[in-house]
Write a structure and sequence with these properties.
By secondary structure, the protein is α+β, with helices and mostly antiparallel strands. It has one domain: Yope Regulator, Chain: A (2-Layer Sandwich), CATH 3.30.1460. It contains 3 helices and 5 strands. The chain has a 5-stranded antiparallel sheet. β2 and β3 form a beta hairpin. α2 packs antiparallel against α3. The longest helix is centred in the middle third of the chain and has 22 residues. It starts with a helix and ends in a 20-residue tail after the last helix.
Length: 143
């Protein structure tokens, strides 16, 4: 199934307007997180900004250690990876999906990925959720 078809079905299933294709990227706006979906090579990707890198070197090191500490389990369980974009000055989370992913698995991946994003944002103090809570599974709220 093409990414455009997945996005179309995802939008229909969730009662939202289909995001515009912006140079091969679709932005799914969820409550508390915007998820960019795109294709590169033979995989689909989910990508979201988690929060800004601190300008204070000590705080940045502390934030990075905390996120990396918490990420080991999520990398294994959710297949999401933490990264940072130095040029943009933000922490990011991404996840790869195979291009043969079915709509049910795509829906579940978006929900789990969104939950992981909210968890990391909470750790960074970027959301109203309580830091340190486990990421929610399923049931992500659409705006």
């Amino acid at each position: 199934m093409s990414l455009d078809e997945l996005i179309t079905r995802f939008s229909r299933n969730n009662g939202i307007d289909k995001p515009e294709n912006q140079n091969g990227r679709y932005l799914i706006a969820m409550e508390g997180v915007d998820i960019s979906c795109f294709e590169d090579g033979r995989r689909y990707y989910l990508l979201a900004n988690l929060g800004p890198l601190s300008e204070n070197t000590g705080q940045r090191q502390s934030d990075t250690r905390l996120l990396l500490d918490k990420s080991l389990g999520l990398i294994r369980d959710q297949r999401s990876s933490l990264t940072l974009d130095e040029a943009a000055g933000v922490y990011q989370l991404y996840q790869r999906l195979p291009t043969d992913v079915q709509i049910e698995d795509f829906q579940e991946a978006i929900e789990s990925f969104g939950g992981c994003c909210l968890y990391y944002q909470g750790l960074l103090g970027q959301s109203s959720g309580s830091p340190g809570e486990a990421p929610p599974f399923g049931g992500m709220m659409m705006p």
